[in-house]
Amino acid sequence: MSTPPGEYYTAERWNNWLDRLREEEIDPESDDSARLFFNLLDDATIAIAKVITDYEDGEFEDAEAAAAEIDNIRAIVLEEVDIDDEEKLTLVDGIQTSLVCALYAAEEYIVGGPAEEGTIEQYIDAAAAAEAEEEDLDTALAHCVQAGTLVIEGDDIGLDVAEDIEYGFVADWVNGLDSLGRALSDPELVEEE
């Protein structure tokens, strides 16, 4: 096995990013703040992508072992974060929300494979409708997860799909799927410096 279990993503790595965030001046209009947001997000989705790729390459004994590794990453990145600054806490919350869908999509893909019907756009449209019309976040997340399995399978999220979504949970989840798609197509390590 190329990566030992529990080493795809570590609490130390996540905490290094959080420490950097604590030290940074955050300005929502700044490119540097946006870059930090996306680096933190992308670093975690690269780890998710590595688990998926190793699973597909037969590096895990079974789907359950790969899903357990996704669960390890989830436990690290979704843990409650202790940051006093409200803007920084909001930034971390956005990252965690984005990662929720990427993590569930990875797990769904590993255990059940890609969605057999529908397109990414159809699933995201259905998710946006569930969020907007019914405020049904469970259904919205389920649709986004199905879209995510197609992203993992190699389909692209079109830019126009993301642009049409109202800001909310679905928009954050699509950010996570977009990051996961990039990680799968070009799995580079995000440098912490």
Please, what is the oligomeric state? single chain
Query: Given the C-alpha coordinates, what overall shape results?
Result: globular
Give the amount of beta strand, in percent: under 5%
Structural Rg: 16 Å
β-strand number: 0
Structural class per helix/strand content?
mainly alpha
Helix percent band = 55-70%
Mean pLDDT: 88
Spell the H/E element sequence. Answer: HHHHHHHH
From the N-terminal CA to the C-terminal CA, the straight-line distance is: 29 Å
* Count of individual helical segments: 8
pLDDT under 50 segments (min length 5)?
none
Characterize the biggest β-sheet.
none
Structure description:
It contains 8 helices and no strands. It is mainly alpha-helical and 193 residues long. It has a domain of 118 residues. 70% of the residues lie in helices and 0% in strands.
Summary, kept brief:
The chain has eight helices and no strands. It is mostly helical and 193 residues long. This is DUF2150 family protein.
Q: Key terms for this structure?
A:
193 residues, mainly alpha
Describe the secondary-structure layout.
Elements (H helix, E strand, L loop, with lengths): L10 H13 L7 H26 L6 H15 L8 H27 L7 H15 L2 H17 L5 H5 L5 H17 L8
Helix pairs in contact: 2-3, 2-4, 2-8, 3-4, 4-6, 4-8, 5-6, 5-8, 6-8
